[in-house]
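Students often ask why we bother encoding 3D structure as a string. The short answer is that it lets us treat folding as translation between two languages. Here is a chain of 425 residues written in the first language.
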Amino acid sequence: MYVDDNLIAEIPARMKQAMAASIEALFILMGFPEPHKRRIAICMEKFIAAMCSYEKQQLGIRLNTRAMVVGMMPNKLAALEKELLHWHKKRKSFNIRQVATLTGEIQHICSVTTWGKYMYMDIQHSVAVALAGNSISLKATSVRYKKLEQCIKAERISSDDELKAHFAQSHKAKMIWSYSRRYFINPSFRKNLNTLLKLLKSDYKWKTPIAFLIPREPDFTADGNSSLIAAGGYSLQLKFWWHLEWPKEVQARNIREMKRDKKGKLISINILEYITVILNYAASIVAINNLKETGAQIPEHVLVLIKADNTAAECWAKKASSSSVIGKALMRLQAALMIQYGIGINAAYIPGELNTIPDYISRYKEDTNSICTFEHLKQVFPSLTCCCCFHPSRELLSLIYNIVLNTHTLDPTEQIKKLGQFGAE
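And here it is in the second language, the structure alphabet:
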């Protein structure tokens, strides 16, 4: 058993006392040392080798309780870089065990970064594809595999039947994982690997504040909504609002104009809602940086909660997606913003009937008979009086439209020079 966990929060003057109390408590629970009766409850090798410090190193992760950050160990980063070098540009394919090994190395990154999951999900999806592909191939070519499946599906009457089924299940799994069928590396997979290797060779600091990894209350919130014609959002805490009408090229590919998804050209409402989340995040970043420049008291590690009335957009912003090609590309844009600006983001679902202000902002220009001015918005929602209009930069909008219309894939290591500015409507 481990006895050093409670020493992280202790001070040097009481370290020995805390250590003795921890050992005594362990012996009371597990029994005092009697080698002729039982093994000693303490792992003495680990106990002697352990360093009593505010910094703990375990399972390839370094936890600093003074700086309150979690980071990757240098040896883990070196192992990941070594593994990625095997996935060079000339390599075209992989088998199930190779991609599983890679996934295991990359999974460590996700535990210490908030943006890693957006690339990890795509690589993990390749594991699922390989598992399904191996199963299909074995079913078509292997008689033994078919017999194992029959044994698993057979009616289980006695305990012997249960044992036979479990035995067959284990052998079926071994056959799937040892099958040598190869799969091609798709462009999205390749770009994610290149991004990780580029970051490993750069001076990027592989550590994340604990404040971004644990459940906590947000410092600021922003709400948004999108229709098939336009989108809008606001934040009373950060004092901004914005309205963006979708270009005709985007509108021409929505569900209203395209009854069928021809060759993946349809731009769904889920995509538009997710863009709204990203634009709200960009506006929050600009507003927070402006507050810092004015000397306002801002928490060191700021977390922004973006609310949306679309469950898919909420899920993509929080957990990533493995199905939508455009969604994956937009997630790389979100990852780029997270890497570059270091401001935390979380997402939450808000019912449509409660999302009244963003819903009105996104639609207030659709009716040609309405008064299309901010003055009218202030009359309808007086709380917006203190807010300034956010104008997304041409660079940011160009990136978004290029992703949506041309399925362009952004390199998250690229710097986005300007996100936007505040000004008159």
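Translate back mentally: The mean pLDDT is 87. Keep this in mind for the problem set.
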